[in-house]
């Protein structure tokens, strides 16, 4: 597998993953194309158009393909490894499609649903309340059938299951991650360990950038030659992104433990006056 490590591979996610060995990836993160149906939707959707990929296939075909890719990622991931899958709820002619529909058909244990509050999204119609959330599913590969796995350190778990940061704007790619997203995941899951981080729909390479900055190895895949090349170039200048990384790392702290608060008769709950109080047992 050495030849794939620290590379951005140009190719189809499923076909490329098929060439990989079993059980060698520690952690993965991705945002696949959402099957937004660019032909039938308004100009906002049409403008988020990928370089070469078709984002308009029958929904059943899309869900089957995603299930297959997720199961292939399961195969290449180590037992005890995780995969974070960013998606959103969509509607086609009034019918809702929820990612849980196909996630439940995969081999993964669904460990958590995180709400990503993006604070802003392109939406000018009033069919529904303005949809500014996306979801991030923490998928887990059990070890010998144990679906629970290890606990996160408190300094990571205290960040809560609602993540509030805006999408990235300073990037030519039409739908890039903000660097904070893969940074939070890699730092929380691997903590001070290093591993191999995979993104099978890597786009502008943000997942690999976060992995590199945190001292891990990475493998990125994208069907577009242009995006794969741009991502490689972005990775060469990875140190330009160090400030953003440090900003996120500084949020992983425990100010006072549960025991500290209890001993000083402080509030041991999680919320007071609308503020999160950090009070988990270490
Ligand atoms: C939502 S974007 C990912 C953006 C990425 N998270 C970033 O930070 O830039 C989805 C990517 O999937 C790629 N893609 C679409 N179909 C693909 C396929 N079959 N195999 C691999 N990549 C594909 C597109 O070219 C696009 O770059």
From TrEMBL:
Enzyme class at the top of the EC tree: transferase
Enzyme Commission no: 2.1.1.-
Taxonomy, superkingdom: Bacteria
SUPFAM superfamilies: S-adenosyl-L-methionine-dependent methyltransferases
GO MF annotation terms: DNA binding; N-methyltransferase activity; site-specific DNA-methyltransferase (cytosine-N4-specific) activity
GO cellular component: cytoplasm
Cell membrane is among the record's keywords: no
Example GO biological process: methylation
Domain DNA methylase N-4/N-6 span(s) in chain numbering: 25-232
Residues spanning the membrane: none
Keywords: DNA-binding, Methyltransferase, Restriction system, S-adenosyl-L-methionine, Transferase
Catalytic activity: a 2'-deoxycytidine in DNA + S-adenosyl-L-methionine = an N(4)-methyl-2'-deoxycytidine in DNA + S-adenosyl-L-homocysteine + H(+)
Similarity section: Belongs to the N(4)/N(6)-methyltransferase family. N(4) subfamily.
PANTHER family in UniProt: RNA METHYLASE-RELATED, TRNA (GUANINE(10)-N2)-METHYLTRANSFERASE HOMOLOG
Protein name according to UniProt: Methyltransferase
Protein species of origin: Candidatus Shapirobacteria bacterium CG09_land_8_20_14_0_10_38_17
